[in-house]
Amino acid sequence: MDLYEIEDTSEWLGTPTRLETVKHYASMLEEDIQDLKRQLQAAKDNVASLVAMNDQLSAELQKNRAWMANLEAETTEQLAEIQSLSMVRDQNDRLRRELEAARRQ
């Protein structure tokens, strides 16, 4: 191919120079960086929100665990009282049967 057959577009109107191309690319990179900074800040805000929610839920969990421990203690006390009353009732029933048996004799 001869040199005169290669089209030289460097002199065409509207063709950017190398410096213009680099400046344009730099401005695109700056826009991308700004967008990434906004996304990073949004992610940081989301993480902070999630940490606050986790702290709140952890506090509620601890409160509920203490409440359940109280309920368990109360239930254990009530069960012991029920067993005690059940033994008294059984003794009462046995004594009544013995008294009725003694009256019949």
Question: How do the helices and strands line up, and which of them pair or pack?
Answer:
Layout: H1 18-104
Organism: Pseudomonas mohnii
Keywords: Coiled coil
Coiled coil: 19-105
Description:
The protein has 105 residues and is mainly alpha-helical. It has one domain. It has 1 helix and no strands. The chain has one helix spanning 18-104. The longest helix is centred in the middle third of the chain and has 87 residues, at 18-104. The N and C termini lie far apart (139 Å). The model has no long low-confidence stretch (mean pLDDT 91).
Beta content? under 5%
For the record, the count of structural domains works out to 1
Q: Helical segment tally? A: 1
Name the structural class. mainly alpha
Task: Evaluate the radius of gyration.
Answer: 44 Å
Distance between the termini: 139 Å
- Average pLDDT number: 91
Specify the overall morphology: rod-shaped
Tell me how many strands there are: 0
Low-confidence parts:
none
Q: What letter string, H or E per element, gives the SSE order?
A: H
Main beta-sheet annotation: none
Helix content: over 70%
